[in-house]
């Protein structure tokens, strides 16, 4: 394992080193003293493993493709934003907009996530061991958001075809978001997501939320829902 110490290396130097790995690489890196720096381990394309020992700032692991990035601490705004594939794991809590606009891959938050977790998600799967803040999965288009704790007001506001599973309490649901039947397929999907995330929870304790599809096309009868 190669160690990069950010007490002596810059963020630009770190990202250039990680981005320089070829498509067939499975190298492993340890990053020391992140000290809340922004934009660490961004734009990775090789299936490498990056272990960041401490808290990170904004947009850590953004635009990730194939890489496995583990943050041994808390993450600032926009962790794993626009991720395409791979795995990003936050051992602590995540700030706002975790997994925003993600197209694929898996984001695991072992603590809780703040507001707008999974905003405009486009295929990413997100598993949060704790709770999520307001307006999570806002305008979520596809993928899954699993919340093992509670979800605050505005969950799934203006949601499209993403699916939300919540084990705890929910606040006031967002516009066009409704509770739906939990099918056997949902339980199988949820079981698989929890296993991939390495989080133990009883799938039978979750409820499913999704789109009522009343906002897909404007009709005057639905004006109250906007």
Automatic annotation (TrEMBL):
GO terms for molecular function: oxidoreductase activity. InterPro entries: Glu_synth_asu_C_sf, Glu_synth_lsu_3. It comes from the Bacteria. This is Glutamate synthase domain-containing protein 3. It comes from Amorphus orientalis.
């Amino acid at each position: 394992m190669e160690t990069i110490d950010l007490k002596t290396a810059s963020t630009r130097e770190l990202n250039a080193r990680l981005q320089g790995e070829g498509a067939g690489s499975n190298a492993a890196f340890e990053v020391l003293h992140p000290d809340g720096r922004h934009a660490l381990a961004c734009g990775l394309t090789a299936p490498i493993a990056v272990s960041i020992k401490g808290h990170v700032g904004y947009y850590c692991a953004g635009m990730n493709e194939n890489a496995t990035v583990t943050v041994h601490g808390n993450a600032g705004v926009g962790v794993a934003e626009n991720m395409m594939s791979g795995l990003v794991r936050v051992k602590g809590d995540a700030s706002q907009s975790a997994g925003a606009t993600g197209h694929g891959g898996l984001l695991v938050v072992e603590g809780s996530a703040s507001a707008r977790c999974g905003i405009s998600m486009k295929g990413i799967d997100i598993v949060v061991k704790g709770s999520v803040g307001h307006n999570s999965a806002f305008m979520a288009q596809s993928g899954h958001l699993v919340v093992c704790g509670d979800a605050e007001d505005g969950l799934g506001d203006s949601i499209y075809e993403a699916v939300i599973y919540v084990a705890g309490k929910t606040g006031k649901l967002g516009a066009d978001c409704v509770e739906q039947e939990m099918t056997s397929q949902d339980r199988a999907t949820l079981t698989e997501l929890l296993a991939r995330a390495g989080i133990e929870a009883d799938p039978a304790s979750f409820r499913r939320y999704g789109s009522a599809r009343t906002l897909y096309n404007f009709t005057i009868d639905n004006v109250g829902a906007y």
